[in-house]
Amino acid sequence: MKKFTINSINRISFLLLLFVAGALFSCEEEDPTAPAEAKAAPVIEAVRSMDPTKADSTFKQSTLGSIIVIKGRNLEDTRFITFNGYNASFNTAYASENYVIVRIPELTPTVATATNVSNKLVVSNSKGEAVYDFTVLPPAPIIEAMSNEAAKAGDVLTLYGKYFYFVKDVTFPGGVKATNVTASADGTTLTVTVPAGVTPAQGSVIVTSESGKSAANARTQLYSTLGLISNFDNKSFFGWGIPGENIVTSAPGINGLDGKFGTVQMAVPGNGGWANARVMHFADYGAGSQILPTTPAANYNANDPIANFEVRMEVAAANTNLNGIQVQVMIPAADGKEYDAKVDLKNFVRSTDGKWYTVAVPLANLANGSTKYSKYSDALASKQIRVAAFNTNAADVPVTLGFDNIRIINTTK
Quick one: signal sequence residues (predicted)? Predict the structure, then answer.
């Protein structure tokens, strides 16, 4: 029998220590979070919702931010998931042989942000990848403004906003569906023909797309006479300014919306120069009553912030260069000091062919120097309002403009 000496035992112990140390070093070099070697490439069979009530339904599209369940095979060792080439983070704890849960990243490219998207969902592991046809939808539509809130049945109305993609229908107040719906390629405008049977006071215009429905707001409501100060017909507190013959049913290149309207037809003085013929002043001098709206009280509370309100009107332009031309709203204070606000007409009136557009002037901008109104009561104290064409150019500019439906709207209602 072979005998082991102390020295030989020490040498064996040393070799064992080296082996153990080497093994430990190798373990430390490995990434403990790395997925195990996959047994086979992944396979995607379907995509379904995390909603238990929809667990049996599958789909091939979903919106940004949605959490989805990918169903298939060999998914437990998933290393990467991409939507339209954009990498999605996911928790490997939620990956099993047949399922993996993932949230579609908010920054995933869609038709709203990229001219070309692959519409592909890709799941990969160490053995390969699975590619699945899947459309990531942009957010639900957003309506920021309508071209003409006084549009009637048969008129073409343009909606301005974002995410007008994959539009299914447009619903008008009263539940009536629009016809001839056409969205721009960039999803920022949508044209529709106003259907018959619309009841403006009963709600908002709503756009429904594959991504969902647009939200109702103060800019999605058709004109319903709410807050009306003057329509130049059956309600008009016109006092002075434009000549009486400038309250007409038609003007060169402009046809009325519904009955009469006021016009500014002149060379508007440059540098904001004054001319009565560019101004429409509204006041009830005879009775001295309040012409600014006060009812319904929920919409016109005197203590509400002035920032809640804006003056709206429909404006048309014919054969007019609108560069530097503004709409000016003036509501003098009780002490007679002028408070005014202005907006550039070309930001609202998008053509000069006589078509009518809705213009909005925020009352939050009413100012006299650096002093501004704070509450609606500040405006009510005036009991008068002026609407005028204003020319910021140095030279006089000839204009033909129509104004109708002067009103104040509470934008928070």
Answer: 1-26
